[in-house]
Structures are given as structure tokens and as C-alpha cells.
Amino acid sequence: MRSCRVPGRGRVDASRPVGFTFDGRRYQGAAGDTVASALLANGVHLMGRSFKYHRPRGPVSAGSEEPNALVGTRRGPGRFEPNTRATVQEIWEGLEVTSQNRFPSLRFDVSAVNDAGYMLFSAGFYYKTFMWPRGFWDKVYEPFIRRAAGLGVSPTEEDPDTYASRNLHCDVLIVGAGPAGLAAARAAAVEGLRVVLVDENAEAGGTLLSEPQVRIDGRPAWDWLADELAALKGLGVRIMTRTTAIGYYHQNMVGLCEKLTDHLAQLPADTPRERLWRVRARWVVLAQGAIEKPLVFNGNDRPGVMLAGAAQTYLNRYGVRVGDRPVVLTSHDSAWYAAFDLQGAGARVQAIVDTRPSVREDLLHEARALGILVKLGHTATATSGRLRVKSLRVNPVQGGQVGSPVTIACDAVLMSGGWTPSLHLFSHTQGKLAWDEAQTTFLPAETREDCVIAGAGRGLWGVQAALEDGAARGREVAAALGKDSAAQAPRVQGDRTGTGVTQIELPTDLNAGRAKAFVDYQNDVTAKDLRLAVREGMHSIEHVKRYTTNGMATDQGKLSNINGLNIAADALGRPQPQVGLTTFRPPYTPTTFGALANYHRGDHFELTRKTPIDAWAEAQGAAFEPVGQWRRAWYFPRPGEDMEAAVRRECAAVRSSLGIFDASSLGKIEVIGPDAVTFMERMYTNPWAKLGVGRCRYGLLLGDDGFIRDDGVIGRLAADRFHVTTTTGGAARVLNMMEDYLQTEWPELNVWLTSTTEQWSTVALNGPNAAKLLAPLVEGVELTEDAFPHMSCAECTVAGLPARLFRVSFTGEIGFEVNVPSPMAMQLWDRLWQDGQRYGITAYGTETMHVLRAEKGYIIVGQDTDGTVTPYDAGMGWAVGKSKPDFVGKRGLARPDLVAKNRRHLVGLLTEDGSRLEEGAQIVFDPKQPVPMTMVGHVTSSYHSQAVGRPIALALVEGGQDRMGQTVHIPMPDRTIAATITGTVFVDPENTRLKIEA
Amino acid sequence: MLLIHCPYCDETLPEVEFTYAGQAHVVRAADPSSQTDAEWENFLFIRSNPKGPHYERWRHLHGCGRFFNAVRDTVSDRFLTTYKAGAPRPDLSSLQGDRT
Amino acid sequence: MNKLVSSFTAAPLARGAVARVSLAPPVGRLVLRARGDLAALNAALGLTLPTTIGQRAAAAGLEVLCLGPDEWMLHLSPDQVGAVQAACAALMASHPHSLVDVSGREVTLVIDGPRAAELLTIGCARDIEAIPVGQGRRTAFDNVTVILWRDGSAAFRLDVWNSFAPHVAGLLETGCRELAAETA
């Protein structure tokens, strides 16, 4: 294998070789190499195949803008990532790299046949081709597109890495640690300002890393850089490398993705792979520099054709000569320096081909001195070479006429179409762009954010200009933050500045319709595609973009957007500012889902609230179900039991003896104050004024639209104190709603609300033996029918614990809810469990609770109601205090729609064939009507009832309360089930079971 | 993510501490029962949807817990001002918008 | 008498070199709501209730943080709770207020160590450094409502409702390990 490493050049450490594999073959690079620089050092340009035509491709850039050299990287099981940019990924010992979009191999790929079919795969190809015949879609087209679609291969194993996130507040955030960013940091780093400087590269320095010839303050650039970084750290500037600013959000919030381990051979313990930073900066300085534009000409995508600036970076930063016989093709002065640098590093530059008829005299002079052939006023019309460029075909252009071609043999084409400021983050701020005719590019103009742009990012070229502008912007920002900064930019020698012209696709003497002059490398969009799109009626740049997919690849059009705009504007015959640029959107570079999800996976994927009894239930083998954020015990299966068997047993235990239930997740709100009763009267439908202390009542809460929002039992502990309970899922919502009315509608009321949901844990005892178990444990209350009747409440002591005792029933059996402070809940539960053994106490879960309450016709808000059900619909008109002047929902209940006939009412259903209905099943009156049938309601709750001896259901049915005894039909896929409308109470309608026998 | 000034805490804080609570200055009548169907419909359902300054209610849920009012520009998403519940509507022409 | 035993059973809390998280011993907690003239309540409590949100006051085993225009969190020894409740109850008729015992509602995590403030940034979006030492704030940690007491430049307490505590403590523990690895 041939080495293209140039001794003595670059910042890589040749004394520290690093081994890695590419498509199974072993290569050696040096510490500090990227995959691309290491492969180029080994003479390998071919690194991938393009997306659509599967054309062989090599790196065109040396940075994060890379569209071509996308590879898969692997680090053992689970750690595979597709579409990694080889120009960014640093190598480490053992890294496995694979090429993409090729089968069976990178050098020979069968889908490259697409390339031969280039004339077929034009812009809008998918829209046009797969239209007909219609029947082909399912069987032929879609499978074809699905197989062909996608870039790289998705990982299939679970990601073993961890990801993190932090918030960071600073005074000044500087994005980009090139000369402008460094100077801005220096100027802003005054006493009292928190300054953060971030850069996506492995090391800070930006263009200085590629321009060692520059001298700053009389010292070599790299020496100055090292000292400057040390000085900034000394001033307290936080410098973060391998950290990409992925998005600029409202009010100076910038998202950063920091890569912490992708460059390491050994993964350190407790270190996340990536960390997402949410930075809130008082001022932001964008110093992201500029991106070089490719030239658009036939064959500009062959491996070996790359940006001239990239070739300079490979040489000066990585010590790699990308070609021994390069030819330079340019419309900008900057590429001339690439030629000079390569010539100086032992390459024989075959020619400098410039599209301009004349260039600066000093450039011509130096080329002559170095013995480099110069061709001015030339175009490039073709390249040759299958897996690596072999020649460049150039023609003179005079008076718009393309002359006879000359073919220049070469092993690399280094091109430059000039430079485009990196506008992406600025664009995220909805900042306005201004067209600069002289530079033929958009420059950042107005933004509403506290943000300034420094250096090449606003069209200033050269190290001196960048340092001066950076220092000025840094001072400006410091002043805006009330600080004086006297920092001045250092002096630069050996700076290389220049100008150029902007080209659309280069003129040609060949059939332009057959030219493969690529604008967007990654999506294989050519100049011809853009012109075709305009011809076919796409006159908005947004339409051109979507029709051709130009700029829609993972590189977000970093190389292609401006070239695409220039060509589209030319085709439209309109100036560029009238055509406009498409919007850049976050993220700036592809970002892992891991970084975005960060801590929220595994145990932290979703917050799960557990009650103090949860661990006990888990030890008992309970099955759980989520209710809101809570996980609740669903049922307690014994060995061999399925859910149905467990629920049947639990139901029977409650109805025959004693069940114990963890109701701790019920919402609880303490309502206190002299106006507490007034507040309750206004919030809930029920009357409260006459509710005695020590009594409780079922309360119904509506919205002002008259629909049921929540319900719960409410106890009056004192004249001015209520203990309100809400549904488990409704707790936060109800408190919010109460606070809303209290703070904004009735601020005059002297009453306060405090959430006690988690202060009190609630243990429910239900069954004929509930009072027998509890009575001996209670001090302060006599649990007899007379002393503590149904719907009583008291503050007392239970099992020696301070308690609030409620006599309530959600099952139709004798029931108590014992509230004790949460830290004591398990103590209470243990005691009840022990003492309850003599009654065969049975723990039951939410499913049994649901069955038992349905047998009694008690509703579950959110299951039997859906936000369109009134108390009257639910058969609970008795809960409405009609004589009250007002309560939330009272006026709503009088709305025309709510008093209309034939509203859907909650009723019971008993199926004629004894089958169990499905919850959610639709109901019709006439099963013989044509489809689509008129649906008149749906099943809301359905269970097998042991107590009734058959399945029971609750349903909302149109006019149901007036249709008792009638038959409705429930059409199912295999048959139609007939059911009879009944009342909602299936068990003990007289409530005889609630009585405690003396 | 927006920054919101809580008029009770007198601090400008991240949006995650707050929840949106609908349009502001929608007054619930003192005696709803005297409202016509049309008036009640207007109170319940009819909301403005302006391009530009919008009177809104927010709650500092994870902070002081207070509901307060705000004027927010629906074009820029910027809060032009925030003020305590019960305070009169600010004059739109006087609002410049806070840059922080 | 029944001791307040925490129901919180988190995994071992983190003890790194640069940040530590531990569970504070049980404490009495009262939520006080009142408005208007606070003089009588001040006298009953033996301190002046701060009226600026975020400010604290302390006296004889009682610590109070102003959470809202009419809201305070009181921390006190568990055996003082009854006495304070009784003292305030006597004022109910003349100075309406609400005093609710929430001692069992939440736990307190103690976070300290040189990088304690940084540890909090994994869940707190607000600028921790902007909270002066000796003050406190109710805020959100990973969308969970918490009360953050700043006792020193690198010493904090975080009050979290019981059921949210494992989530919050788990994240802090992860963050502790990250900071330890970062500093190593």
C-alpha cells in the first residue's frame, strides 16, 4: 500500500500509529487522523456510493459539510452507526468502518446500473414513473422503492451507550473556535462575564489548523494558537470541542451536542457517549466561518475530485497529499494557494485552470515561479476514471464560445467555486438575509435575537479580517453586557485573501442534457434536474427543492443550496434575492436520537409514580397497570391463575368476606378557610352548606360547559375544612382548575387549597367483615351503624396511627377508607393484613375494583364519560344542587344542546346470548339497515360479573333512559349481538349490604 | 424555549416552569344564569386568533403557582409584557417587547 | 409516638468526590397560606414571614421559605408540629389562614460537594447560580415540581414529593457518577 503521508506536515502524530479496518481490510493511520484523512493517507479515495445512482464517491470536503464519504462505524455489539461522516470521525485502534450503498462490494455494485439509466431518473422521477398502472403500486413499485430507499443500514441491536444532558447559562456563547471566535472570546472574556466557546472539531483553531504559514503577532500560527487557548482557559473561558451547535432556538437558547467517547479506543466508565447541552446565553456570537462551494461540471463527483480548501486541510492539518498529480480548477483565488501548497509538498500540479480570463498578478507570478501550467478563461467539460479520477477535460472559453478540448491527465481535481458564509444557525433565528451582489451570496442581516456574526460568516475573508472582526464583535457584546473591553486583534503576516466569481454550471461543448454535473452530491441532483424542474413549472425555490430533493439530504444543502439557487435563478431569469433561499432547519448536522432522548430511556423513559404499598404488591406477584403517571396493582394472580380467574376470586372475596385495596393514588386536596363552603358550593354541583362536620358526600365536578370533569368523595372535617378526593388521573388537573377559578374569578374568597395526595396514603377495606376487622383497631370512633353511619368521616387513630377515616363504599359492600400519613402506610397495611387473616382478607387490584363498582353502576370518569356527558346523561341528576344560584357548569347545563332530547344516556346492557361485549363497541338500533349504519352509542364498561352470574355492561345509548327494556344491537366482525337496555345498578339496588349489623 | 417573566416572582425564567392557560380577559359573568345562550357560547368557545399581539394567560405552575396575564406576539413568539391577574390590559402601542 | 419513617426506598444515594446526594432525616413540614396583615402569625411563629418570593427566615428550629404571594413552606422538628399548629389554630377566627401538615408528603435530598450546582443542571433549566445563598425557589427538576433550598454556594436541599423522589434521585445519582468520571 502506498503512503501519501508527507513527513513533517500536519498535526497528526505519526509516531503513534492507529490501526482500523475499512470493509474488513486493515489500514494504519496516525493519532489525530479522521477516517477520511487516514484512508487518503493510504491512497484510498473511494469511500462510498451515492444514494440514487450508486456512483462511486470519495470525500469532497474535510469537515462536517461532507456529503459523499458516509460510512458505517462499529464498536462491537450494539454500537453500530450508519451515515457517519468519514471526514469527522476520528480513528482509534480497532475501529471498524464499512462502506454503504453498495452490493456486493464497494468496487463493484450492481445498483450502479441506475447510473446507466441516468436519463430515466430525472427530477420528479418518482412522481412521474410510479403513477401507472395503478395496480402496480402494492406489488411492484412500493417494494422496489422500499428496498432501494434509505441511506445506510439502521442498527438492529439496542444501543448500549448512555446519553446525557445539562443546562448551561452563560453571558456569551461563541460558536466556532476559528480566528474570529478566538478573538471574540478574548475580547468578551472580561471580569464577570461567563464565556463559552464551542467548536465541532476535535481541536479548536478552525482555519488556523489548515494555515500554518500564517504568523500571528510574529509567531507561527500554531504556537500562537496554543498560547491563546491556554490564555483563554486562564481567563475562565469554557472551551468545548467536539461540540456542535445543532440548533438556535428562541431567546438565545442554543442546543449543543457534545461527543464524548466516539474518538476513544477504550470507553471510560460512567461517561455518556454524547451530551446534549441546552445553553441560554445573554449574547451569542456566531463565528462559524464559510463553506467552500464546489464547481458544477460534468463528472465533478468522481473520487479524487474535491474542494481545494479540503486538499489544503488534508495536507496542512493531516499531512496527507491527496494527489501526486493534481489539477486545480477554480473561479476563486483561494484555490491557487492550494496548488502552491501541494506543489511545495512534493506534488506535481498539472495545471491551474481558472474560469476567469484574468487573475491577480502575484498569483500568476508565483505559479510561474513554481513551474505550474496556468490556463485562464477555461471551462471543465468532463472527467474520466471509474473509481478514481484519471483526467480532466478542459476547453477555452472566449466570447461565450467553448473552444476545443484539451485533456489533462491527473489523479485529483481540486476545485473551488468560492465561499459561502455558514448561515444555518443564523437562519434558525428567522434572521433576515441580505443578498450581496459583489460576493454573489447571501449574508446575514437582521435578527431579533441578541446575536452578532463575526468573520467569514458575514463575508469577511482572511485571518486578519477574522481576528479583527472577532475582536470587534467581542467588544461589542461585552459593551452590551455593560463591560469595557480593550482587546485588540493581533497582527497577521502571511495572510491569504482573495476574491473570485460565482459560476452556475460551467459552459460545455458537449450535450448538456447528458451532463452529470452534480449540485447535490448526496441526493444525486444535477444542474439538469434543476433546470428541468423550472421548465416543468416549479417557480418557487421551495418547489424546486422538493421536486428535485436538492438540499434535502443529511448534509442539509451545505454545499448545494447556493449553487442550486444560482442555477434555478438563472433558469427562471430572475435575480437570486427574488428567488430566495430555502430555510435551513435544525439540526445543523445529523444528531442521534440518543442525544435528544438523553436520560429518558430505560428506567427514566417515563416517570412512574408508585405508592408506599407498591413494593408489597410487587412482592405478592401483582400485575400492574398504568393510571396517569401512577402504576397501580391491577390484580393479584395466585399460581396458575390468569387475570380472569384472579379477578373472579378477588370479587368473590370482597362480596363474601373482606378485601383490601390500595387507593393511595387518589388525588387529595385540603380546602381550608372561612369561605371554604362557599368555594365548594361554587365548584361542585352538589350542595355543601348543610353537610355536617364528620359527614362526607359524593361530589361531581363539571366544566363551565356542563360536562363531567371529575368526581370523588369529599369529607367535611370542620366548618372551614374539607378533605376533597379526586380521581387518580385527575388530581393535578382538578387542583389546577380550582386554583384557576379561585385566583382569577373569585379572588375575594378567603380559602386556600393544598395538595395532600401524597401526605395521605389510602387503604380501602371492603366487605361484610370490614367493620369487624377495623373496629378493634380504631380509637376515637365507634364503628357502629348509629355512631358512624355510611358516608361518615372522622379524624381518629387506627392501629395507633394518626388517621382520617372515611366510611364510603365503591363496591356496594360495607367500606372504609383509612388515610394515614404516607410514611406509615405500610405499617397500617401490614397490621390490617395480619389481623385480616381470620377473615381471609384478600388483596384486590384495580380490575376487581372496576368490576365491583360497575355491578353497582358507579361511573369511572374518563371511561364511562368522555367529556361530552352531563350529570343528567349519566343518570346523576340527584347530584346537582338545582337551587344553588351558581356552580361551575350550571349555566352550561342549560345550553340548548344539553337539554335536547335524545342525548346519549348511560344505561346498563345485558346481552341476550350471555356473551361479554367489547368495550368501545358501537351500538345500533336496527341491525338490518344498510351500511354505513347509524350508530347510536357505544359500550363504555364491560365485565364478567360473578355476582350477577353473567356479563354486564354500561353503555352510552341515544335516549337510553327512555328505552328501558328495549333491544339494541352491537355489530361485530363475525356476528351481531343483541342486548337489552337495563338500569345501571346490577347488584343490591336497595343498598342493604352497606349496613353494619349490630 | 421561551423565557417568561413572572410578575409575581419578578424573575425571567425558562418556559418549562410555566403552563399556558388560554386567552386572557375572557370574563366569566358574575351571574352566569342571566347570560343568553349566545353570550354563554361566546364565553365558552369563541376565541381570537390574531397574527401579532395576543392577550394570554399563563401559570407559573412549577414556581409561585400564580396565574397571570401576558401579551405575546404570535409572529415572533416573543412576550411583549406580563402582568398580574386583575391588572388592566396594557396599551399595545406602548409595548416594545423585551429582548431578553 | 409514631416516628415519621420515610417510605422512600431509593437505591443507595450517590457519594462522589465532587458531588454527593443523600436523604435528609425526616422533618416536620407545614404549608402556610395567608394574606393581609401577618403580624399575628409572625408572633405565633416567632419569626417574620418573608414576603418576597424565594426569601427565607429562621428562628428556633423553624425554617420558612416564601413560595408564593400567600404561601410559605415551614420546616421544623417533627415534635414541634403540633405546637405550631395549635398556636396558629388559635388565630383562625381573627386571622384566617390555612396550615396543612405535609410532613409525610415529601422527602428532602441533600446535595452538596464542590460541583453540586452543576449536578443540578442536569434537571433544572433555570440558572442555579442566580439563586442567592440563603434563599430558595420552587422550580422544576426534569418536569417534577421541587423546592430547592440553597444553603451554601455548594450546598442545596431539594424537597420532592415521595412518588417523584426515585426518579429525581436516580437522575442525580447518574449525574454524580458522570461528574466523578469527568473529574477523575
From TrEMBL, chain A:
Pfam families linked to this entry: FAD_oxidored, Fer2_4, GCV_T, GCV_T_C, SO_alpha_A3
The record's family statement is:
Belongs to the GcvT family.
- Do you know which PANTHER family this protein is assigned to? AMINOMETHYLTRANSFERASE, AMINOMETHYLTRANSFERASE, MITOCHONDRIAL
Which residues does the annotated region (Disordered) include?
A: 57-79
Q: Which sequence ranges form a coiled-coil region, renumbered to this chain?
A: none
The name of this protein is Sarcosine oxidase subunit alpha
Domain (GCVT N-terminal): give its ranges.
615-884
NCBIfam families from the entry?
A: soxA
Question: Taxonomic lineage of this organism?
Answer: Bacteria, Pseudomonadati, Pseudomonadota, Alphaproteobacteria, Rhodobacterales
In its UniProt record, which GO terms are filed under biological process? Answer: tetrahydrofolate metabolic process
TrEMBL record, chain B:
Q: Which InterPro entries match?
A: SoxD (IPR006279), SoxD_sf (IPR038561)
Q: Which Pfam families match?
A: SoxD
Annotated Gene Ontology MF terms?
A: sarcosine oxidase activity
Q: Name one GO biological process term.
A: tetrahydrofolate metabolic process
- State the protein's name: Sarcosine oxidase subunit delta
Tell me the lineage of the source organism: Bacteria, Pseudomonadati, Pseudomonadota, Alphaproteobacteria, Rhodobacterales
From TrEMBL, chain C:
What SUPFAM superfamilies does the database record attribute to this sequence? Folate-binding domain
Q: Which domain of life is it from?
A: Bacteria
Sections of the chain in a coiled coil: none
GO molecular function terms listed in the Swiss-Prot or TrEMBL record? sarcosine oxidase activity
Q: What is the residue range of the signal peptide feature?
A: none
User: InterPro entries per the record?
Assistant: SoxG, SoxG_het, TrmE/GcvT-like
| Biological processes annotated in GO | sarcosine catabolic process
Give the NCBIfam families listed for this entry. soxG
Protein name, UniProt field: Sarcosine oxidase subunit gamma
Give the originating organism.
Paracoccus chinensis
